Structures are given as structure tokens and as C-alpha cells.
Amino acid sequence: MENKTYTDGYLSIEISKTASNIVVNLTGKSTSRNPGIFLAPILQQVITESDYGTREIVLDFRELTYMNSSTITPIIKFLNKAKIGNERVSLLYLKTLKWQELSFSALSIFKTKDDRIMIKGI
Amino acid sequence: MTKMLNFDLTADWENLDHIRSKVEHFLKQNHFGLNDIYSIVMVCSELVENAIKYGDYNSPQSKISINIELNDSGIITEVKNPMLENNNRHVRQLDKTIQWIRGFQNPFEAYREKLKEVAEKDYIVDESGLGLARIAYEGESILDFYLEDKNMINVTAVYQITKDK
User: Fold this and answer.
1) What is the pLDDT of residue A1?
2) Pairing of strands A4-8, A11-17
């Protein structure tokens, strides 16, 4: 997977890869009726490219300005899959934005005790 | 003192952005803070998304009606739309989900349970019920609904304004 940007409507996903991590930066708004069609294959490819936890996956939502509830489904399916597997994931959000704090802190149910999966308000 | 925003629109997904902008503008004009604005915009948008998904718009005149009422204690968002006659399945599911949410001590617990459920199961697209749980938790709103004549359903979300917000 080369560094790449994917766009669907108002939502952009920029992926950049180094030897140690894959950063997935979501910007704009996710408002599609079925955002899983766009998001799920990208997230699956990121899991593949992380090479069984060799690269940490960083999901950065800090520049996302809005998402509908349908967007949450592919995200939590991804987190659940990573939790069951070997992947290392850090999900970043802005804790100063109330909606992000409420929305993403709830995803702490996917955290692991060994911090292999982390949900971080910054 | 009560203030209102009401408008009708066709059940097109492309209208959602316009709705969010309109609601945001109305709340800004009435001097609400960013957190209240985001909550109500989200609540209204989620209710309209459900109206689009589950309503019946076979007649060209069929529309979704949105009403937002501001009063001293809160913000009431109402979304009304036509349904298929005898669409009992949707009404039952709506009632079941609202009662399920109310069964928890607080909406945060309901939301977390719904997240776990959705993460582990395969839902038919559009039917997870996550939107309603999100309205209750993140939108800090109390949900209810009632049926009107001529197969109309009216879903409401009541958001209480507190100083801390």
C-alpha cells in the first residue's frame, strides 16, 4: 500500500506508511447512507499492511468534523477484529471537542489491558 | 418564551447536509453554544436519516416534516413522516429499541451495549439501532414517538439545557 488519499463525498482518508506505523487520517464529514462500503475495504487493507502487528495502526479522527451513526459500525467492527487479532491500534481524538469525547471515549470497550489497542483523547 | 423552526423536505439523502446547516444556523441565531448546537444537529440528522430509511414516499406529495422548538427548559426535535400502512414491524422495532434504552440506568450503558452488539453481529444495513442509542447518549436526549392519523409517525427527542453545557 503506497501513501494514498481516498475520498467519498465529504470524507477524505489519507494513509501514510512508515516502517513502524500506518497512519490513517480522516478529515471532513462522514455522511453516507452506507459508509461501510467505502471504509471497510480500506480498514481491511490497513490491517493486512500492518503485518500482524509489526506496524502500529494509528487512526486519527481529530480532523473529522461530523460522522453519522452508520460510520461508527465499520470502525467498531475494525476495532473488534484488531482486538481479537494481533494488531496494534491507537485511535486518536480531540478530547476538547465534546462530541468527540463522548463518541470516542465510549469505544474504550475495545481497549486491551496491555495497551495493544488504545483509545486516546488528546 | 418559545421559538420554533419548522420546515418540510423530500426524503432525499442529499438533503441532509442542508438540514444540518439550517438547524445549525437557527441555533446560532438563538445564541446556543457549540456543544448544544452539535448535539441537536446530530439528533435531528439521525432522526431524519431514520425517516428516510423507514418512511413511505410513494406519493409525490409525501414529505418529512421537521420541527425544532426552543423553550425555557429544553430543545424538542420532532421529525414526522408517512409510513407504509400497517408497517407494524418498524413501529414494533422502534418501540422495542426505545424501551430497551430506557431500561438502562443511564444512556451511556445502553450505548456501550449497543456498540458491543453491533461489533459482534452482522446487522442488515440500516437496522442496528445504533442511531437511537446515540441520540440518547451522545445527544443527551429522551426519545419517544407516537402515531398519527393517515399513517404518520412522529418521533421526538427532548434535550434538556443545563448550565454545564
Assistant:
1) 56
2) antiparallel
